[in-house]
Give the backbone structure.
Amino acid sequence: MTLADVGVAFAQEKVARLMEEIAAYQTTVPRKVQRMKEIMRKELTDEEVPFPMKLHKFQAVFWRFLRPHTIRGTLIGASAVVVRALLENTELVNLALLPKAFRGILALVCGNGYIVGINQIYDVQADRINKPFLPIAANELSIPAAWALVSAFAALGVGLVATNFGPAITLLYVLGLFLGGIYSVPPLHLKRFPVPAFLIIATVRGFLLNFGVYHATVAALSLPFKLSPAIIFITGFVTVFAIVIAITKDLADVEGDRRFGQQTFASKLGVRNTAFLGSGLLLANYVGAIAATIYVPGAFNQNLMVLAHACLGLALIYQTWLLESAEYSREAVAAFYRAIWNLFYTEYALLPFI
């Protein structure tokens, strides 16, 4: 045997051993990984979950329970109204009022949480079809825990308003909670009927929010209450906009609403007709904003009002066209509804400057 033959034999032996080791590794490692997974599952099932993990899960569940898009609408709207009131009275701005303002914001978040929370409690069966990601529908939050949260929201909200903003604002706040309650709670459960449902949403999100926040702000500044053209405009505009939100929010919920007897515009008229109805109302709202600027000269920043609302109207038409092009698929309907809310946020962002 030559030296070359010895070298070849040695190399073949090494390669064979290496292949055996690779085969053994491929066999044992997955078993170990699987065993680790089983141990981890057993620990999380049989033993107490670590507190940080519980806290993180609760935070995620709590945030979804609050319906973040509605919270954003409330916070952006209230902030814009406050900023507008301050810009109209810059000489009275006082940083000492900030704590009171934060308490007011917290009260609004509590009111919002109460209304959307109680709606989830009574709509849980329909939500399991329409919105299975919501905490109660997904069995991530029990009904008793949800009741504890909405009760805490109501108590804290009323307490904050009553101790900081006087009887008139407290009455408006309680009225908002009452309307939010009869929207969802039997025997009235007015959500079942299209017209009372959109009237409640328009009243709470349109009139009560804007009027109440502005009233509270000028009172904190020790000013007599007097509505400015901008506040009159945004109250009327957002009231109509809230009707559009009330109409379009059910576009994705037709299946569950029909099964459980919820008479919404979408379940009665169909998704396409309801989408065009909502878009038409909102487009008329934008045309009305431009007309108000022209027919009430000097009351608004005319150039901004005309240009901004023309652009927003075009954006609405584009979003409606996208929905039509996608043949009203579930994903397209969800994207359209998000776009409606984005237009809502944008209107409030314009308020300080109009």
Notes: The mean pLDDT is 89.
